[in-house]
Amino acid sequence: MNNTFKLRDNIFSSAYSLSFLEDDLEIKYPFKEYLIKYSDIDKLRCGIKWIKGYMFSIGRTFVIDFTLKDGSQFSLKLLSLYKIKLSSQQENYKQIITILFEKTFDKKIAQYVDLIENGNSITIEKLKLSLKGIFIIDNNTPSQWHSVSLKKYFHYFVIYDIINPKINVSFDYLRDWDSWIIYSICEKFIQKNIRS
User: Fold this and answer.
1) What is the spatial distance between Cα 77 and Cα 194, in angstroms, rounded to a whole number?
2) Could you say which of 77, 104, 131 is where a domain stops?
3) Residue-wise pLDDT tens digits, 9-58
4) Which of 71, 104, 137 is a domain's end point?
5) What is the pLDDT of residues 137-184, one digit of tens each?
6) 132 and 41, same structural domain?
7) Count: domains in the chain
């Protein structure tokens, strides 16, 4: 698996590199470098932005945003216009996300699952998760794990109550922070309730 990637935000910007080292993430811009400890990475969101032409889409930008615990934010982008380098950019996007999860977010998910299994509740974005189920903060409604389900779409996913589908909340992969983490945690607890 490749550990160094060449990225470009748009056709007018200079290329920069992203390298996954043993303990750090290295981002090298033409005139600036960042060395980020994996343990300092706090939140993630990622997705695809379509580049619109006059009558149709002419390309896409694969976006990976993350914040650090100090509040600073980084945005990594892979660009494909007119399907040039599309498959290689898609593959690079998948690899970067996979490595980020392996280095950072898999541990975070495991910590959240342990907290919940030990009787604690956690709040991520607009959702409170506990051993009993979920609580949707926006509309003040609870659902037990045995009646919670997930529906995954291309740009977002929905958590909903099977008994009362009006109880639901959606998370956009590109707009909502930690949507992939929420999805992974919910999927684990839904699977546990199906098996038990």
Assistant:
1) 38
2) 104
3) 878 888 899 999 999 999 999 999 999 999 999 999 999 999 998 999 99
4) 104
5) 888 888 999 999 999 999 999 999 999 998 899 999 999 999 999 999
6) no
7) 2
Question: Residue 62 pLDDT more than 70?
Answer: yes
Q: Is residue 22 situated within a structural domain?
A: yes
**Listed residue (141, 186, 196) closest to 168, CA to CA:** 141
Residue 83 has pLDDT above 70, yes or no: yes
- Cα separation, 136 vs 172, whole angstroms: 16
Identify whether the C-beta of residue 38 lies closer than 8 Å to the C-beta of residue 104.
yes
Residue 149: exposure state from Cβ atoms within 10 A (0-12, 13-18, ≥19): middle
Cβ within 8 Å of residue 107, ≥6 positions away: none
- Domain range holding 70? 4-104
Same domain, 99 and 19: yes
Q: Which of 59, 119, 57 is nearest to 83 (CA)?
A: 59
